[in-house]
From TrEMBL:
InterPro entries: MFS, MFS_trans_sf, Sugar_transport-like. Signal peptide: none annotated. Keywords: Membrane, Transmembrane, Transmembrane helix. This is MFS transporter. It comes from the Bacteria. The chain crosses the membrane at residues 21-43, 55-75, 84-102, 108-125, 145-167, 179-199, 219-249, 255-273, 285-303, 309-328, 349-375, 381-399. PANTHER family: INTEGRAL MEMBRANE TRANSPORT PROTEIN-RELATED (PTHR23526), MAJOR FACILITATOR SUPERFAMILY (MFS) PROFILE DOMAIN-CONTAINING PROTEIN (PTHR23526:SF2). It holds the Pfam family MFS_1.
Length: 429
C-alpha cells in the first residue's frame, strides 16, 4: 500500500511545476466550494422558505459569469493572470459576506449577492480553464481532471458533514445565523490561502489576440451545442439538492451527510479513472455519467420523498464528476484543433464557450421558473430535473460526432474523398 502511494506521489511530482501548483491551488480552494455550492443555497432556502428565490439567486450568478469572462479578457491585457485568478477566489468570500449582511432576503439583495458571486465564478473559471488548457495536453488531461476530482470529492466527504452538523447543532435561528457568519469568515481566510498558493506558479497570460468572434469552424458549433446541453442541468442543479433536502428532510446536517456518503464512492472512482483511462475512453465515461444522472432524476421524480432525494444525490455525486472528467478534455481537444485551424488564441474559445453554457443555464433555470409559477414549486422540483436530465442524454450522440470529426481534423494522414477516389479508379481502368 505504501509502495503504491509512493508511486502515485512520484507520478504527480513528475508533472511540470505549474501543473502541480494549479492542482494545489484548486485543492485549497476546493475546501470552500461545497459551502458556496450547497450551503449558501440552503441559507436562502432556510431564510425565505421559497425555492423560487433560490433559483433567482442562481440565475443572477449565471448572469454575472459571461460578463466577467468578457471583462477578464480585457483585464488580461493589463494584469497578470495570477492576480485575476486570485481575485475570483476571494470575491466568493465577499459575496457570502454580502448575503449574510442582508437583514431581509428581498430580490434586490439576493440579486446583488448573486451578481457578486457571478463575478467571482467568472474570474475563477475563465482563468482556471485557460491555465488547465495551457499546462496540460491530450495525454495527461484525464489524469489532471481525475486528480482534481479525487481531491474535491475527498474534501467533500469532510466539509459538508462537518458544516452541516455545525449549523444544525448551533441551536435557535439567531445562533444558526451566527454559525453561518463564522463559516463565511473561514471561507474568506481559505480563499486568501488559495491565492497565496497560486502566486507560487509562473503562469503566463494568453497571447494578446482578439477574443471576440462571431463565426467559427463547424466543429466548434457542435461543441457549443454540447455546452448548451451541459448548461441545461447547471441552470439549477447546483441548488436543487439543497432545495430538495431542505424541503423534504429539513436539516443541514442531513444535507451534509448525504453529500459525504456519495463523495466517498466518487473519490475512488475518479482517481482510478483519471489515472488509467485513455482519451478513447471518454465517451464511455461521459455516457455512464449521463445515464446515472438521468436515473437519479427519474427516481427522485417518481418517489419525491426522503428516499428519492438521497438516491438522487448519491447518483449525482458519482455522475457529475464522471461527466466533467470526460467533458473538459473533449472541450480542450476541440480548442486545440480549431485554434490551429483558425489561427486564434485559445482564450477566445474559452470565452465563447461560456456563451453556450449561459444559454443552457438560462433555459434550465427558466424551465424551473415556468413550472413553479404556472403550476407549483413542488411540481418544478419534481419534474424540471427529469426534463433536463432526459434532454441531456442527447449529449451522448453530439459528443460521438465531435470526437469522430476531431479525429479526422487532427489526423496527420490526408483524408481522401470517396468520390475523388472512384474517379481516379475509373481513369486507371
Amino acid at each position: 500500500m505504501f509502495k503504491k502511494l509512493k508511486t502515485e506521489i512520484g507520478h504527480f511530482k513528475s508533472q511540470t511545476h505549474n501543473f502541480q501548483i494549479l492542482v494545489l491551488t484548486n485543492l485549497v480552494y476546493a475546501i470552500v466550494l461545497p459551502v458556496i455550492d450547497i450551503f449558501v443555497a440552503a441559507y436562502v432556502m432556510r431564510s425565505s422558505n421559497d425555492p423560487v428565490k433560490v433559483v433567482i439567486y442562481q440565475l443572477t450568478i449565471y448572469a454575472g459569469i459571461p460578463l466577467t469572462f468578457l471583462l477578464n479578457g480585457f483585464l488580461l491585457k493589463h494584469f497578470n493572470i495570477r492576480k485575476l485568478y486570485s481575485a475570483g477566489m476571494m470575491l466568493s468570500g465577499v459575496s457570502m459576506m454580502i448575503m449574510m449582511s442582508l437583514k431581509t432576503l428581498d430580490l434586490v439583495g439576493i440579486g446583488f449577492a448573486g451578481i457578486t458571486m457571478g463575478l467571482s465564478f467568472g474570474f475563477y473559471w475563465s482563468n482556471r480553464d485557460y491555465l488547465a488548457l495551457a499546462i496540460t495536453n491530450d495525454t495527461n488531461r484525464n489524469y489532471y481532471y481525475g486528480l482534481e476530482t479525487f481531491f474535491y470529492t475527498i474534501i467533500a466527504v469532510v466539509i459538508p458533514i462537518t458544516i452541516g452538523w455545525f449549523i444544525e447543532s448551533s441551536g435557535d435561528e439567531a445562533q444558526i445565523h451566527t454559525a453561518y457568519l463564522v463559516i463565511t469568515g473561514i471561507v474568506f481566510l481559505v480563499t486568501v490561502a488559495a491565492s497565496i498558493v497560486c502566486f507560487r506558479g509562473t503562469f503566463q497570460n494568453p497571447e494578446q489576440k482578439k477574443y471576440v468572434f462571431f463565426k467559427f469552424h463547424q466543429l466548434w458549433y457542435k461543441l457549443l451545442s454540447l455546452s448548451l446541453l451541459k448548461g441545461l442541468v447547471q441552470g439549477f442543479l447546483v441548488t436543487a439538492p439543497a432545495m430538495l433536502i431542505m424541503l423534504l428532510i429539513g436539516k443541514e446536517g442531513a444535507l451534509g451527510t448525504a453529500q459525504s456518503i456519495g463523495a466517498i464512492i466518487a473519490a475512488v472512482i475518479m482517481y482510478v479513472l483519471g489515472r488509467i483511462s485513455k482519451p478513447s475512453d471518454r465517451i464511455k465515461i461521459f455516457t455512464t455519467g449521463l445515464v446515472l444522472f438521468a436515473l437519479g432524476a427519474v427516481v427522485n421524480g417518481l418517489l419525491f420523498n426522503q428516499t428519492g432525494v438521497i438516491i438522487f444525490i448519491l447518483l449525482l455525486l458519482v455522475a457529475k464528476p464522471l461527466m466533467d472528467l470526460a467533458y473538459f478534455p473533449i472541450q480542450f481537444k476541440v480548442i486545440d484543433i480549431v485554434s490551429k485551424i483558425e489561427k486564434r488564441g485559445e482564450f477566445a474559445y474559452i470565452l465563447n464557450h461560456e456563451a453556450g453554457l449561459f444559454a443552457g443555464r438560462f433555459l434550465g433555470a427558466g424551465t424551473f421558473l415556468v413550472l413553479a409559477y404556472a403550476i407549483s414549486t413542488e411540481i418544478a422540483l419534481r419534474y424540471a430535473i427529469v426534463i433536463v436530465a432526459i434532454l441531456q442524454l442527447s449529449s451522448i450522440f453530439v459528443a460521438k460526432k465531435i470526437i469522430a470529426e476531431g479525429k479526422l481534423l487532427s489526423s496527420d494522414e490526408p483524408v481522401i474523398d470517396s468520390k475523388v477516389l472512384s474517379e481516379v479508379a475509373e481513369k486507371m481502368v
